[in-house]
Amino acid sequence: MTETRSEKAKAGSEEVAAYIAGLTAEMVRLARSDNLSDLTHLLQMPRMEALERANSGQDGESKRIA
């Protein structure tokens, strides 16, 4: 079965979101290690959004991302 153009775009978007989730996870870790609580909190929001989008194509399958 071949993927449609929209399925490929969605898969690409999910990969980008997963990458962003990983980057923001590292930034959260850095901010937390220096006790930058406000920045830690602010960085959690885009990380959670990226995780949600990265996992949006899962059909009951769990994928762990940063």
Describe this entry's structure for a reader.
By secondary structure, this protein is mostly helical. It has one domain. Helices cover 71% and strands 0% of the residues. The chain contains two helices and no strands. It has helices at residues 5-33, 37-54. α1 (5-33) packs antiparallel against α2. The chain is elongated.
Uncertain stretches of 5 or more adjacent residues: none
Give a count of the beta strands, DSSP E runs of length 2 or more.
0
Morphology: elongated
Q: What is the average of the pLDDT values?
A: 84
**Whole-angstrom Rg:** 14 Å
Share of helical residues: over 70%
- Element-level helix/strand string: HH
Class derived from helix and strand content? mainly alpha
Beta-strand residue percentage:
under 5%
Q: Please give the alpha-carbon distance between the first and last residues.
A: 31 Å
Number of separate helices: 2
Largest beta-sheet details: none
Number of domains: 1
Compact description:
With 66 residues, this protein is mainly alpha-helical.
Q: What features would you highlight for this structure?
A:
mainly alpha
Write the layout of secondary structure elements.
Layout lengths: L4 H29 L3 H18 L12
